[in-house]
Specification:
The complex is a heterodimer.
Chain A (H helix, E strand, L loop, with lengths): L20 H8 L4 H11 L11 H10 L6 E6 L8 H8 L1 H15 L3 E6 L7 H17 L5 E6 L9 H8 L23 E5 H13 L1 H5 L9 E8 L5 E6 L2 E2 H8 L4 E6 L5 E4 L7 E2 L9 E6 L4 H15 L5 H19 L6 H15 L3 H5 L1 H10 L1 H5 L1
Parallel strand pairs in A: 1-2, 1-4, 2-3, 5-11
Antiparallel strand pairs in A: 5-6, 7-10, 8-9, 8-11
Chain B lengths: L2 H13 L6 H12 L4 H11 L3 H8 L13 E6 L2 H5 L2 H12 L12 E6 L11 E3 L2 E3 L4 H14 L2
Helix pairs in contact in B: 1-2, 1-3, 2-3, 3-4, 6-7
Classes of the chains: A alpha/beta, B alpha+beta.
Chain lengths: 389, 156
């Protein structure tokens, strides 16, 4: 399989004085919307929030919708445990996010854009608003009919799910909708909407700055470009790092581990747990294990039972409660591993619980309930004795 | 009109009276009054011409939109995995001792409410807590206590 060595990249936070975001915007708006879409598709950029949908296609589908009103929304409801990259991006280079949104608005024909910021990041509101006022003014000076507004969340993880986010913006409970219709057809206010993650929007701005070719030169054929990783847990270098996609997990651990790593949770609580013996043949990218950026490292002093217990508590609290598989499933999984630990249930009960997560995977309404199987099965299969004894 | 009704009226003037304005209005009330009283929720329902049950239903979905009285300062300690690995329990214990209240409770002088929260997005600098909207990463029990004492002084 094609793979890359661990290599640091500096695109997201780099400030190019000769090509500031607003200059990139001016340059890009000289092109036709279709040309920009082609460039996005050609770049191979996939969404950086975790799901990995091709960004160019999302823009294209929304452009093709026939509607007077369309929206661009920046999903800044970063809530996946172990992820904190969007906060740094919002803090350090928000102008690149705004520019990505303005380019998208031009492509799809939107007049309004929103940034939905999680409440936990409210301390960023003031400075973001100031920078946004300046940017909106710059748009006005250029007679561009587009403005960006800020909206706050109120502490619900599930609102990072795009349709739940729309519900929240519409003043309702953040309960995910049935799909289809997808946001490109009926999103915010039931109008065609592009909703992109913070980091994705910055990459769209970067691709417009440096061209698809240079972006494509990074990463592998399935995972073009680079990605910002949030590194935490038992690491000697906690923090955020932009790395080329497609590296083996082994390289990552050699760089960031504390020489005693026994497992890495790739992709946050809803991601996969990779044990030491699989570090060598696990690729970080869409061809291997994709991630929204969360990389939590556990060394041999950690109990994987406690890790799984933490995750299940998290999901039990954050499940919106709308659909039964997720609401009841999360509760039963948590109760179930507690019962096995206490010896009230035999170890074979873990197999029943695994089946339950597979039911949740096909029956839950949104990504929250569907993805509980990822951590559950990967931790139970690889660390069964820690769960039982 | 009462103070709360007046304030809700101002918020409705500012954000508009569509359903889309509901979250900003509720957030505005919580920012000032720390929670949504029955009176506030009924006032919001009247301003937006929707049922009070809809307002209550929306409010109770969100962790940060409290519907029970809270202290003047709301402390939220992150309890998710990375902070757990970096001894958030010690921080919580120190705060419980300092504030003389348990997680979920409000101090008798109504100055502080102590809560836990799911991932606050500071996993590389845990343990971390929010006091109202302000964030305090890389906590030690001593540091957490000093921060609370500072808020205590400011609230006098």
């Amino acid at each position: 399989m094609e793979q890359k060595q661990l290599k640091r990249v500096d695109l997201i936070f780099e400030w190019d004085e000769k090509n500031t975001p607003i200059q990139v915007l001016d340059k890009t708006l000289q092109k036709t919307p279709d040309a920009i879409i082609l460039e996005m598709i050609d770049s191979g950029l996939k969404g950086r929030g975790g799901a990995g949908f091709p960004t160019g296609l999302k823009w294209k589908f929304t452009r093709n919708e026939d509607s007077e009103v369309k929206y661009v929304i920046c999903n800044a409801d970063e809530g996946e445990p172990g992820t904190f990259k969007d906060r740094e991006i919002l803090d350090r280079v928000p102008e690149k996010i705004f520019t990505g949104m303005a380019i998208c608005a031009y492509v799809i024909g939107a007049k309004e854009g929103y940034i939905y910021l999680r409440a936990e990041y409210n301390f960023l509101l003031k400075s973001l608003q100031q920078k946004l006022d300046k940017f909106n003014q710059q748009l006005k000076e250029r007679q561009i009919d587009f403005s960006i507004y800020l909206r706050s969340g109120s502490g619900a993880y599930v609102c990072g799910e795009e349709s739940a986010l729309f519900e929240s913006m519409e003043g309702k409970r953040g309960e995910p909708r049935n799909k289809p219709p997808y946001p490109t057809v009926a999103g915010y206010n039931s109008k065609p909407t592009v909703i992109n993650n913070v980091e994705t929007l910055v990459y769209t701005c970067e691709i417009c700055r440096m061209g698809a070719e240079k972006f494509k030169a990074l990463g592998t054929s399935d995972s073009r470009g680079s990605k910002v990783f949030s590194v935490s847990g038992d690491t000697t270098k906690p923090g955020i790092y932009e790395l080329e996609l497609g590296m083996p997990l082994k390289d990552f651990i050699d760089e960031f581990g504390d020489d005693d790593a026994k497992a890495v949770q790739v992709g946050g609580a809803s991601g996969h747990c990779v044990p030491r013996k699989k570090f060598n043949d696990t690729i970080i990218g869409f061809e291997g294990i994709p991630t929204g950026g969360s990389m939590m490292i556990f060394n041999s002093s950690r109990s994987m039972y406690n890790v799984l217990h933490d995750y299940l508590e998290f999901f039990t609290e954050e499940s919106c409660g709308q659909c039964t598989p997720c609401r009841v499933g999360c509760q039963q999984l948590l109760k179930g591993i507690e019962a096995v630990k206490k010896g009230e249930r035999p170890p074979t009960y873990l197999e029943d619980l695994k089946k339950l997560t597979l039911t949740m995977k096909i029956a839950a309404k949104c990504g929250l309930g569907q993805s509980v199987a990822n951590p559950f099965i990967s931790i139970v299969d690889n660390f069964k004795e820690e769960i039982i004894y | 009109m009462t103070n709360t009704e007046n304030f809700v009226h101002e918020l409705a003037e500012k954000h508009g009276r569509t359903r889309n304005a509901l979250m900003p209005i509720l957030q505005g009330v919580v920012a000032r009054e720390k929670y949504l009283s029955e009176e506030a929720m009924i006032a919001v329902a009247r301003e937006l011409d929707i049922s009070a049950a809809d307002v209550y239903g929306t409010a109770t979905f969100y962790t940060f939109l409290d519907t029970v009285p809270r202290g003047r300062n709301v402390v939220r300690v992150c309890k998710t995995i990375s902070c757990h690995m970096h001894n958030k329990d010690e921080i919580i214990r120190a705060l419980e001792e300092q504030l003389k209240c348990k997680v979920g409770e409000t101090t008798s002088d109504k100055k502080f409410t102590l809560l836990t929260a799911n991932c606050l997005g500071w996993c590389h600098k845990g343990p971390v807590m929010l006091v109202n909207d302000d964030v305090y990463p890389e906590l030690t029990p001593q540091k957490a206590i000093e921060i609370i004492q500072e808020y205590n002084r400011k609230s006098n």
